[in-house]
Design brief:
Layout lengths: L4 E2 L1 H7 L8 H16 L4 E4 L3 H9 L8 H11 L7 E4 L3 E2 L2 E2 L16 H9 L6 E3 L3 H5 L1 H4 L5 E3 L12
Parallel strand pairs: 1-6, 2-3, 6-7
Antiparallel strand pairs: 4-5
Helix pairs in contact: 1-2, 1-4, 2-4
């Protein structure tokens, strides 16, 4: 089964804490996280816990009250099980990560989101990244798509840069 990388905004939106996510987007995020859990799709994070710590800023270890919290609890419970959680090594640099594509068209890509790209690139299967509604991903989609796959759960909320 193809593993998956999940952007923090998916968990936040599933919990209903993203003011930009309308009810249909929130429901789509809920459904996506439930599907990942029910199918036991491996979740990919970094071995240095940058992604885990980012999740931890917004989620509750108790798994309540939202589906994003439940997903975080699930990740925590299976954290040490490589069948459910794949951990990859990434190498931080001044501008992000060595694994992040060295592409001038990505110079403006959000530094906080570079971890997700680096993790996908560091994994041998280059798993897709699930994103809810972060426009930065849409603005850089054409270039990012050369390197990794992005699954937009709420594409109606994402501003995509015009094709040239």
């Amino acid at each position: 089964m193809m593993p998956i990388v999940v952007d923090t905004n998916v968990l936040i939106s599933a919990n209903g804490h993203n003011t930009h996510a309308d009810p249909s987007c929130q429901l789509a995020c809920v459904e996506q996280l439930i599907a990942i859990k029910e199918s036991a799709t491996p979740i990919v994070i970094d071995s240095s816990d940058i992604i885990f710590n980012q999740y931890k800023l917004y989620m509750n270890f108790s798994g309540e009250p939202g589906v994003g919290d439940k997903f975080f609890k699930y990740l925590f419970e299976y954290y040490g099980n490589p069948e459910y959680v794949h951990k990859v090594d990434v190498s931080p640099t001044e501008d992000g990560f060595e694994e992040f594509p060295c592409d001038p068209d990505l110079a403006g890509f959000d530094k906080d989101d570079r971890i997700f790209v680096a993790v996908s690139m560091a994994h041998p299967k280059r798993p897709p990244i699930v994103n809810a509604l972060d426009s930065d991903w849409g603005e850089h989609y054409k270039t990012l798509n050369k390197y990794i796959e992005i699954i937009f759960i709420c594409p109606h909320h994402v501003h995509f840069a015009p094709s040239t």
